[in-house]
Amino acid sequence: MAYGLARRELRPRVPLRPGEGEKHHLTSLEGLATLSLDALSSVAYGPEAIVLALVAAGTGALAATLPITLAITFLLAALVVSYGQVIAVHPDGGGAYAVAKKDLGPTASLLAAASLVVDYVLTVCVSLTAGADALTSAFPALAHDKLLVCLVGLALLTAVNLRGVAESARVLMLPTVLFIVAILGVIVVGLLRTHPAAVVGAAQPVHATETLGILLILKAFSSGCSALTGVEAIANAVPTFRTPRVKRAQCTELMLGALLGLMLIGLAVLIRRDHVAPRGDVTVLAQLTAGAYGDGWAYYATNLLVTLVLGLAANTSFGGLPVLMSLLARDHRLPHLFGLRAERPVYRYGVLALALLAAVLLVAADADTHRLIPLFAIGVFIGFTLSQVGLVRHWAAQKPVGWKRRALINGTGAVLTTLAGIILLTTKFLEGAWVVVIAVPLLMLLFDRIQRYYTAVGEELQLGRVPDPPDRRAGSLVIVPLGEVSKLARHAITAALALGDEVVAVAVHADPDRTRILEESWERWNPGVRLDIIDSPHRSLVQPIVDYVQRAAGNGRQIAVLIPEVEPRHRRYEILQNQRGLLLATVLRARTDVVVCMLPYRLSV
């Protein structure tokens, strides 16, 4: 006791490196901002997709918007409950992939992984192009630069995510909150008004080309299911949450389901009450916004906010796909570098791969949303079905308390998502969904071939087995390529003498006078090491040394080549140094089995 204070035990504290500690992981609200924008922003095109499908039967068919939306919301509730269970059973993330691998076997897990990769890449592309469409609607002058707008947005998202998920969450928090408030405001204010405050867009004649039958309703339902993409992203990225990770991720999933369901139903009620039909140059959401807020500053502010959030919705993929790719790398189904993390908790190679794939697809589709939409949502419904079928098998095998009720929930969700996926595939096959049908099996084949390669490498290296005793060779030889007698030569010879039993210096010269000067300098220095000078009439440096090393290695001795290399103090001077050492090391590694060592000599200038 001292001055009335209790004595505390002093313990050494090791400072955390950047990226370590809970502050670089997500809270529930940060997770909502980072991982849920894809699903939340779908209210900008999900209800409109239903309207566009139903209007083929005339404006009277738009009354079916609300029942179809209720059916989609019921499916959403089943998915939210199901993925809450996925989070609890698989806290390491992976979502449908983890479930399929554990409960459905390797083939199903490959299918889940391939479908999720396709969906994540398409999520980035569709979100960016939809945001660009909204932006060019407000600023028509940008219409010819839509691809550039998308690529700039992609570059910004990539840069933000390379700094870490937590940092991107803080960037996205304010736009997410404003977007939710704006959409809920449209619903509340719109319902309080007896008639729309303003009407925007040019009226278009509606000609009924179909009857409101079961096929049209199913088509509208499948189109509206695009609003469900992104629901699985939270389950795929559980490791990015703060502890307790499972509870935080489940809480985020519930918040997402409640907000998305409320917004979808509210907008559907307004569409039905106000008989909102497609109009020229504006979206359905823009019409509802004008009906609630009028056509003043609130209307423009909301539309610009929707544009921003649609662009930022691509961040969902940056939070989910790199984690999934790290799991695939851990299972030897992707190159192991995708499992590496930077000092911050970021799978940078996964982020960069996603950015590259999205950029290629954006260029191929010329940033045309209508060319990308038919590919959208099919992959994620494959993941939905696999994850829920896998959980049914999990509950049946484990039989915990209440397993029948849980299996019934997942089984119902599996049936609904299977039907929705079949409808999506059949109604959009000729519109471009056939690309997904080809891409998914190709990705499965790629994952399988990579796994086979790693298995073959493991067999050859005898990983997991005790190897034979090491070979005992007669002495070792260290070869040091040098150009002249200098302090660099002293630095290299000193290091070589510490490494091997025998050291020999090798120089290559084409000028007899320079050869004689080098021999005289070596005799005066007399370092106790033999000097072999190779004559090179063609003034080649690399090949004579490679031939020398190959001859020395022919007798079975252990050979090491120590290559001294000058490193300037400032990086701007690196271009002034020759790269012969690096070239020599590259050729030696390619043509010989000797040990190649680079010895840096750091300059003070």
Give your account of this protein's structure:
Helices cover 61% and strands 6% of the residues. The chain is of the alpha/beta class. Helix 22 (580-591) links the parallel strand 4 and strand 5. Helix 7 packs antiparallel against helix 15 (348-365). The longest helix is centred in the C-terminal third of the chain and has 59 residues, at 403-461. It is elongated.
CATH architecture of the largest domain: Up-down Bundle
Largest sheet: 5 strands, parallel
> How large is the radius of gyration?
32 Å
What would the principal axes of the Cα set say about the shape? elongated
N-end to C-end Cα span: 56 Å
Strand content: 5-15%
β-strand number: 5
Structural class: alpha/beta
Given as residue ranges, the uncertain stretches (5+ residues, pLDDT < 50) are 1-21
CATH topology of the largest domain: Amino acid/polyamine transporter I
Strand order within the widest sheet? 3-2-1-4-5
Helix content: 55-70%
Q: What is the arithmetic mean of pLDDT?
A: 81
Please summarize what this structure is.
The chain has helices at residues 28-35, 37-40, 46-54, 65-89, 96-103, 106-138, 146-162, 165-192, 214-224, 233-236, 245-274, 284-293, 297-312, 315-330, 348-365, 369-372, 378-398, 403-461, 487-499, 512-525, 542-552, 580-591; strands spanning 476-481, 502-509, 530-535, 558-567, 595-602. The protein is an alpha/beta fold and 605 residues long.
